[in-house]
Design goal:
The structure holds 2 protein chains of 2 kinds. Chain A is mainly β. In chain A, strands 2, 4, 5, 6, 9, 10 and 11 form a 7-stranded mixed beta sheet that branches. Chain A has a 4-stranded antiparallel beta sheet with strand order 1-3-8-7, with no helix packed on it. Chain B is mainly β. Helices cover 0% and strands 56% of the residues of chain B. Chain B contains no helices and 11 strands. In chain B, strands 2, 4, 5, 9, 10 and 11 form a 6-stranded mixed beta sheet that branches. Chain B is globular. The termini of chain B are far apart. The model of chain B has no long low-confidence stretch (mean pLDDT 93). The chains are: A mainly beta, B mainly beta. Chains A and B meet through strand 5 and strand 10 of A and strand 5 and strand 9 of B.
């Protein structure tokens, strides 16, 4: 979805390096999420944020941190990258004002990260 | 813990046939179930949502069923086309809770 962008699209880094993945959205949604996807394991939630002042850990937050710089921006950092963090990372947004009790999510194109 | 199972093997079917994908879950009583499509190199895209009190939902050539007794959802694509080839993910949630995704099933429609 072009309304949710992620940079970089591909990244190769070395063990121990700090890296940041960035996500921007023009959908005007308050809620943003970071997932990682590994083959056969589906999408697993790393962190989520319901507004600029709200940050919550997901299922697999160890080794990651996030920053919600503005409504439109949500960054994911790997403080000291390790090889088992090699994965496909997705940012997503949702809108609680859709009038139903559960929101559908809108995903960015993903960042493919390789940690050597 | 919650577990969502989708067939990890690819489903190969002939163009024009109906594709049926399965999503089974355990240790969970979701109020909502969603299906997403994911193409290679792209993020998932929402297709359909069905609530626990709905047996069936349709959208064009797509049909989803939700059987809370069997703890299973079936996703059907009728009159399948090569353009339907993709990975399909199911995701479960309760009101206000986060989505939990299955591992996805890859569908290949051959002309």
């Amino acid at each position: 979805d072009a309304d949710v962008t992620q940079t970089p699209r591909n990244r190769i880094t070395k063990t121990g390096k700090r890296i940041m993945l960035e996500c921007s959205q023009t959908k005007g949604h308050d809620r943003m999420y970071w997932y990682r996807q590994d083959p056969g394991l589906g999408l697993r939630l790393i962190y989520y944020s319901f507004d600029v002042k709200d940050i919550n850990k997901g299922e697999i937050s160890d080794g990651y941190s996030v920053s919600r710089q503005a409504q439109a921006k949500f960054s994911l950092s790997l403080e000291s990258a390790i090889p088992n963090q090699t994965a496909l990372y997705f940012c997503a947004t949702s809108d609680p004002r859709t009038g139903i009790s559960v929101e559908t999510q809108y995903f960015g194109p993903g960042t493919r990260l390789l940690v050597l | 813990s919650q577990k969502i199972e989708q067939n990890s093997e690819a489903l190969n079917i002939q163009e024009g046939k109906t594709a049926t994908l399965t999503c089974n879950y355990t240790n969970y009583s979701p109020a909502y179930l969603q299906w997403y499509r994911q193409d290679p190199g792209r993020g998932p895209v929402f297709l359909l949502l069905i609530r626990e009190n709905e047996k069936e939902k349709r959208k064009e050539r797509l049909k989803v069923t939700f059987d809370t007794t069997l703890k299973q959802s079936l996703f059907h694509i009728t009159a399948s086309q090569p353009a339907d080839s993709a990975t399909y993910l199911c995701a479960l949630s309760n009101a206000g809770n986060m989505l939990t995704f299955g591992g996805g099933t890859r569908l290949m429609v051959k002309p």
